[in-house]
Specification:
By secondary structure, the chain is mainly alpha-helical. α1 (7-20) packs across α3 and α1 packs across α5 (98-116). Strands 1-2 form a two-stranded parallel sheet. The chain has one domain. The chain is built from five helices and two strands, in the order αβααβαα. It has helices spanning 7-20, 26-32, 39-59, 78-82, 98-116, and strands spanning 24-25, 68-69.
Length: 128
């Protein structure tokens, strides 16, 4: 799919973050993949995030892309919003600011809770 990383590698980093109850900045996730931040790499990463969430949805897992945020305001980038991050939950508010932050934190909490309830069961590695 992309020379940047395999979706499964990205997924494993995000599942570990979810189990730890933390979001990662785009730069942090790129760093874990062995890259420094650049806009082209961030765009490539966003494509992979979409693939990770599509596959996760087929498995009945909550989204993971919501855990990847801008360092500046701890919110997902425009791509997450455009791809339906808010619409899928009937959110039609702003993509920035306190209202967006409350919404994103609630979605992240759902993801954290789901993965933390499965921590240690083998699910993180995709064992079904």
């Amino acid at each position: 799919m992309s020379a940047l990383a395999e979706p499964e590698e990205v997924r494993l980093h995000l599942v570990a973050a979810a189990q730890a109850g933390v979001a990662l900045s785009y730069g942090e996730l790129l760093g874990r993949l062995g890259y420094s931040f650049s806009r082209p790499k961030m765009r490539a990463l966003c494509t992979i995030l979409g693939a990770v969430d599509e596959e996760g949805a087929r498995r009945g897992e909550p989204e993971l892309a919501v855990l990847v945020v801008r360092q500046s305001d701890e919110l997902p980038g425009q791509g997450w919003w455009v791809a339906g991050g808010g619409r899928s939950r009937a959110y039609d508010g702003p993509w920035e600011g306190p209202e967006a932050r409350r919404f994103v934190k609630a979605v992240q909490r759902e993801t954290f809770d789901w993965w933390q309830s499965r921590s240690g069961t083998g699910d993180a590695a995709g064992a079904d």
